[in-house]
Design a protein that fits this description.
Mean pLDDT of chain A: 88
Helix content of chain A: 40-55%
Number of strands of chain A: 5
Shape of chain B: globular
Order of helices and strands of chain B: HHEHHHHEEHEHEHHEEHEHEHEH
Largest sheet of chain A: 2 strands, antiparallel
InterPro entries (chain A): Calcineurin_B_homologous, EF-hand-dom_pair, EF_Hand_1_Ca_BS, EF_hand_dom
Subcellular location (chain A): Cell membrane; Cytoplasm; Nucleus
Family (chain A): Belongs to the calcineurin regulatory subunit family. CHP subfamily.
Oligomer: heterodimer
Shape of chain A: globular
Keywords (chain A): Calcium, Cell membrane, Cytoplasm, Lipoprotein, Membrane, Metal-binding, Myristate, Nucleus, Phosphoprotein, Protein transport, Repeat, Transport
Structural class of chain A: mainly alpha
Mean pLDDT of chain B: 84
Strand content of chain B: 5-15%
Low-confidence stretches of chain B: 62-70
Strand content of chain A: 5-15%
Organism (chain A): Hemibagrus wyckioides
Strand order of the largest sheet of chain A: 1-2
Number of strands of chain B: 10
Amino acid sequence: MGSRASSLLREEDIDEIKKETGFSHSQITRLYSRFHSLDKGENGALSREDFQRIPELAINPLGDRIINAFFPEGEDQVNFRGFMRTLAHFRPVEDNEKNKDPNIEPLNSRNNKLLFAFRLYDLDRDDKISREELLQVLRMMVGVNISDEQLGSIADRTIQEADTNGDMCISFSEFIKVLEKVDVEQKMSIRFLH
Amino acid sequence: MEATCWDVMLGILQVWLCVLMGLIVFPAMFGVSLGFTDVYIKVLVKTLEWATRRIQRGQKEQLELPAHLPNGIIQRNDGSMEEEIEDLRRSHPKPLNGGDFTLSDVFYFCKKGVECIMEDEVTQRFTSEELASWNLLTRTNNNFHFISVRLTIIWGLGVFIRYCILLPLRVTLAVIGLSWLVIGTSLVGLLPSSSVKDWISDLIHITCYRICARGLSATIRYHNKENRPKKGGICVANHTSPIDIVILANDGCYAMVGQVHGGMMGVIQRAMARSCPHVWFERSEMKDRHAVARRLRNHVADKTKLPILIFPEGTCINNTSVMMFKKGSFEIGGTIYPVAIKYDPQFGDAFWNSAKYNMVSYLLRMMTSWAIVCNVWYLPPMTRQEGEDAVHFANRVKSAIALQGGLVDLFWDGGLKREKVKQSFKEEQQKMYSSMIVGQD
């Protein structure tokens, strides 16, 4: 698996991915062999089924929403570049990255991490979380264990708490505001071993 | 001219077979070792150590080369859902009344989900395990392309030895071993039932497996032999490859349980069944769990019959972990003799990745590896405690095996190799999360 996998990845590709995502060379080659082993169709791209074959993801209540985050709208395949771009949201924020080029926001910024979470709720991608969407996501998380009534009141309360302009929806800026005290940088980051 | 050519070939073949018989087959029959394998393994260990040092030196010189990185990509924290979400909510601004839900709860699921996309506990167990350093087999060469001239020469020499000397030798041995088994057991099958027949049958089996083990240059270390499975018991072991059977049967006789196969395997199975009572099932019978259990129970009840050998994982795992034990074998009753088998991956990957290789190409890979080196631990016999159900007992045995073999103890079902995960696991997660929102009712 490993030998063929890394030879398919050209040095130029690695350099570009490095620049775009901030992953190191060895992280990229390792994640490439992971990508390769998930790619059961062996066509250089992953489908939704390829993700669903990971048992731990299949039992994740939000598994389908997370998988969805890898696929641009209307597409059902993701290549290695796209795969890495999504994973890059979960890179820890390093100190030396903070004062880099201020014009380009890195994928792993606090804002982008929050946006990733926001989009899990925003089912129709209209940049607003409506009560209906919140209810649907809550239902995914709790299954059949909580009554409609109870869930409804949870959704109402959550929106009330977050909504500042009275449109009964949560916009991204309202979302940021509610979560301003949460240590997003740490909670939405995955530590790499190498 | 032609005739002499044939004569020479025949002569060579005769000498070859005589040498094999004298130096390998006969010693194998009586279970003595002439020490060739030991010397070979010692030389091998030295060579691999040298290669490792070379590779490390090479890596220091060329920092550009990615260092070989064993054991995982990311660090996963194993806090429970409860702890992690509690931790998330701590920073939430307002005190909560009524439902305990915060928008940041998704961070937990999100991180968990992305973590397992990068690296998960289950699917990686169904592919070859990673090595700490290159073992000079081309197939495991991940990141080392060219390191030094000397290393390349050693590698080339290795290819020559493995393919031109070891492979023909090993194939011949395997053929001799298997034909010995088929012919021997068929002949013994003609004898009337008696203790003499059992004795000869055992001898033929063990000889065959010893020859086959030499055909793989197997070096097996058995630990705690006093716990060897006894008649009327069930031996359960973790499963890495079909070779497990050869490994275990080198040190004792077992009754095999399994499905009737066609082709070559079928011939061997039928021959074996003639000389001693193995338990082979037809495919249709296998589906009927009660019939299977009944036949096994009858076998175990007869204290004169050989211990049954079962691999309760039901599928091959890559030598790093033990997966769920199917409860069937633990419902039969009788004494369970757990056995842990751990291969040394440095000399060759024993894991059979059946999705990728068929039996023949797998055996070819085995026969062109350096050697099969493994440790076998016999664990103290275990019995079901009063009031303990089969599932719990199965887990207890599994943990004991994992602990002894230095393997990761997983609750996941090895059947996930082919099937999707059960919906009920997801429901469990949802239930757990629900109780964090509304509290236990």
